[in-house]
Amino acid sequence: MLDSTFTVFALRTFTVGYVLFVFFKLGSSGSSKCKQIASRRRGKHVRDRRAKSLTHEPNNTDVKTLIHQLNCARNLVQPRRALLDPTEMELLYVLWSLIENRYYIALKQNLSDVFTKANGRVESTLPSITLDFVLCEPETLAPVLVVMLSNPRADNKLSVELERAKEAFLQHSGLPFVCMPRAARYNEVVVERRIQMALGARSVRYDPALKYA
Fold first, then answer.
1. Which of 5, 57, 117, 169 shows a CA-CA span of 20 to 30 A to 74?
2. Is the overall model pTM greater than 0.90, yes or no?
3. HEC per residue, the chain
4. CA 84 to CA 107: how far, in whole Å?
């Protein structure tokens, strides 16, 4: 009698343990699958968001944010006295005297205004860095040369690294560029020589015999 009772008890215990084991395995497997599905959906969401950002089309949230920022700042601003500082104006005068109508000089262009992705779409993820002067063909406004003013602080390591990063970016972009150190005065001959070197010895001076815009 005791043997049969013990056998029934052992069988019931084994059955309950086996059911709990199977239930636990199924639950952990389902949880793992749910996590995998959530991870895939999350990755798809990130890819979709990145792809949308590359089209450079602001969504309604971005537009609302811009409107809010403009409304907050409209009573806090006033026009600048000049678009350029004295150093920039000095270099601009030299460029004007050299180039005249040979090239169009665009001022303060963002990277996204000058560069696009290889597929032709605007790269919205470019950093907000301004190019001081961009020489363009007068008829098409195609960029020909970038002129940057450079004055990194020797005691600021990040400032020096930023200037190097700018130069490396322009070197890889394929667009010729010239970095001029900030100065109170600029020698026209020196500026002309550096631009000619960047453009492959091409003349930058205005030639009345040629037809420009």
1. 57
2. no
3. CHHHHHHHHHHHHHHHHHHHHHHHHHHHHHHHHHHHHHHHHHHHHHHHHHHHHHCCCCCHHHHHHHHHHHHHHCCCCCCCCCCCCHHHHHHHHHHHHHHCCCCEEEEEEEHHHHCCCCCCCCCCCCCCCEEEEEEECCCCCCEEEEEEEECCCCCCHHHHHHHHHHHHHHHHHCCCEEEEECCCCCCHHHHHHHHHHHCCCCCCCCCCCCCCC
4. 9
The answer to whether residues 89 and 105 touch, using CB atoms and an 8 Å cutoff, is no
Q: How far is CA 73 from CA 34, 67, 69, 78, 115, in A?
A: 47, 10, 6, 10, 29
